[in-house]
Amino acid sequence: MKNKIITSVVGFAIVSILALLAFVYLYTMKNSQVNPDNGTDTNGPSSGFFETKCLITVNGSVYNVTDLQSGYPHVFVCGTDMSESFNGTNGMDFQLIAPYKID
Predict the structure, then answer these.
(1) pLDDT digit string, tens, across residues 9-28
(2) pLDDT of the residue at 27
(3) Are 31 and 48 in contact (CB under 8 A)?
(4) Residues contacting 63, CB < 8 A, separation 6+
(5) What whole-number distance in Å separates Cα of residue 70 and Cα of residue 74?
(6) Residue 43: what pLDDT?
(7) How far apart are CA 17 and CA 21, in angstroms?
(8) How far apart are CA 25 and CA 19, in angstroms?
């Protein structure tokens, strides 16, 4: 009898957790539109339940270029090391991304 009660409680807990995860997923995706080019949310950084950030690495430093995504949609590849691309285009001119350095 005791094992049946424990099994029922554990089963209920698992179902509850799955329902919560489904709710969070559906709430997050409700108004989300993912850009197929780079995987970022086209509605902006706070369009869903979780904030979407576009982080890049250039020469060992990490930059949050989320705010620049709208002005430069095909320039930044979120989650990658963009040192080669950035240095080839901008040399050592970090004026554009300097304010977005996070480390």
Answers:
(1) 777 878 888 877 776 666 55
(2) 59
(3) yes
(4) 55, 56, 57, 97, 100, 101, 102
(5) 9
(6) 52
(7) 6
(8) 10
**Residue of 28, 85, 79 whose CA lies nearest to 53:** 79
DSSP state, residue 80: S
pLDDT value at residue 40: 54
Provide the residue type at 103 as one letter.
Answer: D
Using CA atoms, how far residue 100 sits from 5, 26, 53, in Å, is 54, 31, 12
For residues 69 and 54, give the distance between their C-alpha atoms in angstroms, rounded to a whole number.
Answer: 8
Taking the CA of residue 58 as centre, how many other CA atoms within 13 Å lie in the half-sphere pointing to its CB?
25
List the end-to-end C-alpha distance of the chain, in Å, as a whole number. Answer: 57
